[in-house]
Structures are given as structure tokens and as C-alpha cells.
Fold this sequence. Notes:
Blueprint: H1 2-6, H2 10-32, H3 35-51, H4 62-92, H5 117-127, H6 130-141, H7 146-153, H8 157-177
Amino acid sequence: MAALALGGRQAAFAEIMQRHRVPIYRMICGQIGDAEEALDLTQDCFVAAFQHLKSYDGSRPIRAWLTRIAINKSRDWVRRKRVRQILSFAWALPPGSIENIQDDAPGQDVAAADKAEFVRLRRAIARLPAALRETLVLRTIEGLSQTETAAALAISEKAVETRLYRARTRLGAMLKMM
Length: 178
């Protein structure tokens, strides 16, 4: 299918989008935690893929390539969001008070006792460092193989194994504390 898309067949790229849009959306949603924004980023991912189709290496799985684009789009979105938050917060402060800004990261009490286990787990995953979260989402939730995950993240298969172990260990500890 990728070869046909590379040959200029738009119907082939439409088929690629149809096959991979749901897993790409789920992966993005898992990365950023915002379903509405994930829809936009999924669309951006496929637009970028179509624009850069000539740079696709046909020896790699198309899903790994699309996942790599989606991860980069997600990272950019998170980065821009943080900058906007910092700037909007700093703009509202009186001059000279920026040194006293407190970290407003959610505490352990964020997960209320009446929340569903899914919400609790999702929040814990969102708190993992990006490298661990990406590996966990791709391997466990999206079901990519170790090789596909390594290709998508541009790391070794051993690094995938290590990150997955660390992610699961931290996630377990976090869930015990929540």
C-alpha cells in the first residue's frame, strides 16, 4: 500500500489513513491526555505524512513511521502548551514576583476515591516521563512489537525492554500511592 502511495495514488494513502487513524489517535490521546486535541493532532500527523511521503523508507513498517510522526507532533504540542501556560501565568504576575512561582503539578490526591480505575490508571500513565510513557503506550496499549516500538522511537530493542520495565515498575508504585 505504501508503494502505491509513494507512486502518487491518493486512494492508497487514504487506505493507509483508514487502517492507521484509530491506533494513531489512541497513541496521541495517550500522550497528551486531551481527546479533542488528539483529533487535531491525528489529522496533522497524516497531513505531515502525506507531505513528506517521499522521505518514507519503504523497508520500515508504515505504522512505525506514522507513529514516529505522531510522537513528534505530540511532543511539540506538549512543549507549546507548557510555554503558553508559563507565559500566560507569568504575564498575569506583578513584575518581580516570577521568582516565587510554585510548581502546580497535581499532587497524590488528584485521584479521588470515587473515580473509576481507568481514570486513575490514565492519570498515572500521564505522569510517567515521556520516554517511559511513549514506550509503555506503544508496546502495551497499541500492541506494537518490540521491533516496531524500537523503530518508532529510534532506539534499540534492548532500550525498549528496559524502558518498558521501568515504566511498569514506576506505574505500579504510583498506583499504590494513589
